[in-house]
Each structure stands twice: as C-alpha cells, then as structure tokens.
Amino acid sequence: MKSLKNKYYFWRQKKRYKKFKNCSLPYPFWDKKRDTFEWVYFDEYRQTGYEIQTNLYEALGNVSSSGVTYHYEALMYGRNDPEEKEAKYQMIESHCHSFDEIVGCVYRYPETFYIPEDCLEEYSK
To answer: From the CB of residue 118, how many other CB atoms can be counted at a distance below 10 Å?
Structure first.
C-alpha cells in the first residue's frame, strides 16, 4: 500500500512540475490548487527529478552546492567533547546554516549568545 501511495505522489509531482523540466536554476512557481509558493528546478541526480524549496536562499545554495555557516557560542546543555561523561550547562560553540536560524538562537540564548572574534567575517559577507 505504501509503495502505491509513493507512486501516486511521484506521478502527481511529475505532472505538476513537468513545465520545469528544462529549468536548471530555481524558477518561481505559485500553485493555486495547494496555495503554495515554491522555487522549482530540475535536478537530474534526484530520484524525483525536481528540487522544490520554499526559500530562494536554500534553493540557490543547493544549485551551487555551497552552504553558508554562521558560528556562535552560547550557554547550552551539552558536551564540548564526545569523551565527556556528563552533559552540563557550559559555553558551547555551535553553528547554523541560515541567518534566520541565527536570529532564533539569539532569542533562545539572549544573555549568553556570543560571536567569536575569528568568526565575525562570516557575518559581514
């Protein structure tokens, strides 16, 4: 039953996005039926053939196969090293892949959020 649902889903997707078969860059698509806005492009290496993203930034990142990383430190519960026996609250260096995620981390850890000096260059680009 599950494979039948998958086949139906892929068939619907193929029908919906067939006009993007020649698009190698993200193209805006508004689907009236589903009331959604997406960025679609054809990717020959994907099983379905189409890459669908709701965010242009992520779609362009997938096309260029490059990602942006924003490093930060905050007081979080966890381990700095895998060898540590216990998790505890400590300053831990972490990272995000979009500026929206960074804003979320600032709201999550407002008192202890810190950008290391050697990582400030990432934020100015």
So the answer is: 8
Residue 109 structure tokens = 């850890």
CA-nearest of 87, 70, 68 to 79 is 87
pLDDT at 125: 58
Exposed / middle / buried, residue 64 (Cβ in 10 Å: 0-12, 13-18, 19+): exposed
What pLDDT digit, counting tens, does each position of 87-123 carry? 888 888 888 877 778 888 899 889 999 888 888 887 7
44: Cα separation from own chain's centroid: 20
Pairing verdict, β 36-42 and 50-53: antiparallel
pTM value > 0.70: no
Q: Are 13 and 22 in contact (CB under 8 A)?
A: no
CA angle 110, 115, 120 (to 5 degrees): 140
Q: What are phi and psi of 36, to 5 degrees?
A: -135, 150
